[in-house]
Design goal:
With 124 residues, this protein is mainly alpha-helical. Helix content is 68%, strand content 3%. The chain has a domain of 70 residues. The chain has five helices and two strands, in the order ααββααα. Strands 1-2 form a two-stranded antiparallel ribbon. The chain starts with 5 loop residues before the first helix and ends in a 7-residue tail after the last helix.
Length: 124
């Protein structure tokens, strides 16, 4: 009964090893030379010089959200590209699958053009 759990145990050990071993190697082998610039906080392209509650420009968030949106939409193309050859070989729904992806890409391009025309991608 317990031998059935051996692959699970090995999976957990390998996962922990992949996560922990590089951290330990970096700690042991890397030189440790901190200076004031390395220890200074840095986040989101802004120098930490004011209160943490300072206002951020909304354009920063808009660009980030648009990037995530288009990145996820492009990620939908990878599974389609991997199975499209199988649809061509089967021949039954290849034209429908190709047409549906072209409609998806057309909507994606129209959205990109609308964002570009509205100035959502301009950073002045």
């Amino acid at each position: 009964m317990l031998e059935n759990y051996f692959p699970v145990l090995m999976f957990i050990l390998v996962g922990l090893g992949v996560g922990v071993v590089p951290i330990l190697l970096g700690r042991v082998l890397a030189p440790y030379r901190p200076d004031s610039e390395k220890n200074s906080p840095y986040e989101c392209g802004f120098e930490a010089f004011e209160d943490a509650r300072m206002k951020f420009d909304v354009r920063y968030y808009l660009i980030a959200i648009l990037f995530i949106l288009f990145d996820l939409e492009i990620a939908f193309l990878f599974p389609w590209a991997t199975v499209f050859q199988e649809f061509i070989a089967a021949g039954d729904q290849a034209l429908f699958v190709f047409g549906s992806v072209m409609v998806f890409l057309a909507i994606l391009v129209i959205g990109y053009i609308v964002e570009w025309k509205n100035g959502a991608l301009d950073w002045e």
